[in-house]
Specification:
about 475 residues; mainly alpha
Length: about 475
């Protein structure tokens, strides 16, 4: 009898140990991590580090391995950069420690645009784990768009807690660039390079800084170094293509994107390749060529029965027509997308967010034709869709852009700026364009130059192609 009781007790102890497996001692102020698998924990730590360092495809693949070993591994779900990780983590929040629960809540609040809740939650987490570098790193992200000084304070604390925290230097460099503190940004990136010299991501980050600060040729050389390490790196190939567009080397830009363009239709690489090829045509003034590329891709997406891809491609077509001043054609494309979704049975939230974008595009198109009532009608639908289908940080930024376009049409420039700078502030190319456009219209030359320049140098956003020519033309005139 005693032996059986001892065995049961031993099993309970083992179960408890597996339930809360702690990466490091809480005495060192580090947050416990809940998982039933030591192997999954090791994979999680590696995947989290990769994602924080910007190597998201590799990081996600390793995090998925951790989830395969422990499907209830909440933080592994949370740190996935793609997919439905945050919602999966929320569903597991009752199974984790208080600190993990707070981190999940902060992620969820930030994703939904509830900045106040995200701030309150992350502050509570930092009180519990004031020296956990990953908590401090995320606290920076929560605060940055609303209180840059406080955000940087958290990041410096993370570096003080762990001086070899490469990801913190990477994030610090980008944030200092946004604050136009370029010398400090260069120092942060060089420190990152000292710590993690084998990382392709740091060369990529350093190259982006060089491009932003006007050392474009050296930036291209740095990106080519990354390509030597990994010829299949689609993001770097896209950035090399953008730089060739910047130098008006269009043949080289096409050559860089050819492999991406010829990828499997269902792959992300195919999407990037198609969009960049279309951008190259559009930026050279060949609207019909851009639309032909998109039409060919749309046919493939129909054959793949890829509704999300179809809506995204139709949305892109609409914006090419819109920025090409062919408003009736833009309205036709956006309407086609809405009819497609109306004919569909099972609609996911992401697809509804794209329908929000289609209505937003219609609002802009009618607004530029000075058809104010129709513009307002579609803007109201976009607002309703945003409110109904799980608002997200990026989607809120797009909605803010449509609001600004409507305000600009009515000459309400202060209201437009208020929309564009209110939480959640997006870093999308549409947001940058309307920040530039609104400041341009209202006579704020310095801010207009700043945001037109940011848009031209948006190497990671293929939607920037819609606005590239106008931004470059206005930047040239304003800078004279």
């Amino acid at each position: 009898m005693v032996s059986i009781m001892n065995q049961k007790f031993a099993h309970l102890v083992i179960a408890a140990f597996l339930l809360i497996f702690t990466a490091c001692s809480t005495a060192r102020h580090e947050m416990p991590i809940t998982t039933s698998s030591e192997e999954a924990l090791g994979l999680f730590i590696t995947g989290r580090d990769l994602n924080e360092n910007g190597e998201r495809f590799t990081g996600d693949s390793i995090l998925m391995q951790a989830i395969d070993l422990d499907p209830d591994f909440a933080l592994a779900h949370l740190y996935l950069s793609m997919g439905d990780g945050i919602n999966n983590a929320k569903s597991l929040a009752s199974k984790v420690t208080p600190g993990e629960k707070l981190l999940i809540q902060a992620y969820g609040a930030r994703q939904s645009g509830n900045t106040n809740l995200a701030v309150i939650t992350i502050d509570s987490l930092i009180k519990l784990f004031s020296k956990d570098k990953h908590c401090l790193y995320y606290a920076n992200k929560v605060y940055y768009r609303n209180n840059a000084d406080k955000a940087l304070e958290y990041l410096y604390k993370a570096i003080k807690s762990y001086p070899y925290y490469a990801a913190a230097y990477n994030l610090l460099g980008y944030e200092l660039i946004e604050l136009q503190r370029y010398d400090e940004a260069r120092e942060a990136f060089l420190r990152y390079l000292d710590i993690y010299p084998e990382s392709e991501n740091i060369i990529d980050s350093y190259a982006e800084m060089l491009f932003i600060t006007g050392e474009e040729r050296e930036a291209l050389n740095q990106y080519k170094k990354v390509k030597l390490y990994d010829p299949t790196n689609s993001f770097v190939n896209v950035k090399i293509a953008w730089l060739n567009i910047f130098f008006e080397n269009y043949i080289e830009a096409v050559n860089t994107c050819t492999d991406l363009y010829n990828s499997d239709p269902a792959s992300k690489e195919k999407e990037w390749g198609v969009c960049m090829m279309a951008n190259i045509e559009f930026i050279q003034g060949n609207l019909s060529g851009a639309l032909e590329i998109m039409d060919s891709y749309i046919q493939q997406l129909y054959e793949e029965n890829n509704l999300y891809g179809l809506l995204l491609a139709i949305h892109q077509k609409g914006w090419y027509a819109l920025r090409g001043d062919v408003h009736n054609l833009a309205i036709e494309f956006f309407t086609d997308g809405i009819e497609l979704i109306n004919d569909s049975i099972n609609i996911a939230d992401d697809e509804n967010m794209l329908v929000m974008g289609l209505h937003g595009g219609l609002s802009v198109a009618y607004g530029e034709m000075l058809m104010k009532e129709k513009s307002k009608y579609h803007l109201n639908i976009a607002r309703s869709l945003y409110a109904a289908y799980g608002p997200q940080y990026y989607s809120k930024g797009l909605l803010n852009s449509y609001e600004a376009a409507y305000d600009n049409m009515n000459g309400n420039y202060d209201m437009a700026i208020s929309h564009l700078t209110s939480p959640a502030t997006s870093v999308s190319s549409a947001q940058k364009y309307y920040l530039a456009k609104t400041n341009d219209l209202s006579g704020n030359k310095e801010q207009a130059i700043l945001f037109y320049n940011k848009l031209i140098k948006s190497l990671d956003q293929y939607f920037a192609g819609f606005f590239y020519n106008e931004s470059r033309e206005r930047l040239s005139k304003l800078s004279q």
